[in-house]
Amino acid sequence: MKIKSLRLKDYRNYDLLKLDFDAAANIFYGDNAQGKTNILEAVYLSGITKSHRGAKDRDLIRFGKEEAHIETVVEKKGIEYQLDMHLKKNSPKGIAVNKIPLRKASELFGIVNLVFFSPEDLNIIKNGPSERRRFVDMELSQLDRVYLSDLYNYNRVVNQRNHLLKGVKDSGNIMDTLDIWDLQLVQYGNKIIERRKEFIKQVNEIISSVHKKLTGSKEDIQLVYEPSNGNLTLEQALVKNRERDIRIKSTSVGPHRDDICFMAGDLDIRRFGSQGQQRTAALSLKLSEIELVKQVINDTPVLLLDDVLSELDKNRQNYLLDNIHDIQTIVTCTGLEELISHRFAVNRVFYVKDGSIVEKKA
Predict the structure, then answer these.
(1) Which of 63, 72, 299, 313 has the fewest CB atoms below 10 angstroms from its CB?
(2) pTM for the full model?
């Protein structure tokens, strides 16, 4: 899989930009706050429909403009796709594939498989469970359209249930309605939990050997899925927590409250691991993600590396660069020295300054 080209109009700090990518390594370098990450964000947005930074559509539009346009040309197993996305300030985004408009943004998922790696991802282990859930959900949504549909329906049910709970004044007259929402929540929730557990099992088959190599075989690692309903079934947990949910006006159990534990032997790395252990576990996770995507789609994903190398020591830099030589990579960094020192094969180099990009000799 390859990103062939990117065209931006009135996106972030770019008024008009046209880029053609090499099939291997593409480097964007320059000082901070010049627009390097905006390139990665636009590529990510064109495949995932949302900014990796959580920005709203209106915040992606160039100041003083009413809409922005992203055109991305992708080649996947010999077939070329043109992905067009129109971002508007006061209405939903418009998306088309090969000039054919999509009814739902979610229909775009699966055409492009992207792995995004930023310095923030190195904190995924020590940060809250919402980030770990988001990691699993975003990867599964790219790989499994059924999961994406179940997740959409589950979130809709949770929102409706919470809306009902927030409007409760007399809990006596809402029990029948809660029963209806609970049936649907259990239906979709169980599917999500089972698919997530299967995903964790697949990751575990890869991550152990990766982590051992990163730690010189000093440490093993295993992911464990932690459902918020504990040893109860989801249905039992909803019944048990119903009075509490009515009191706090929110749904307290379900996949939207679950977590993923990272264990090194008997050590819970999330809570008791050192910063070095947590960052190494995060790197192992991202490298395992790349390998898992390869296995599932029988192709390579596109890797987006946002100024990650400066956050890693030399050994971890070497391991990362040695393991991405066979996939298309778009890298941002402040300088080229760290790549040159690793003898990393650089195919195209772009210098970024104030929303202007100039190609330099590789």
Answers:
(1) 63
(2) 0.91
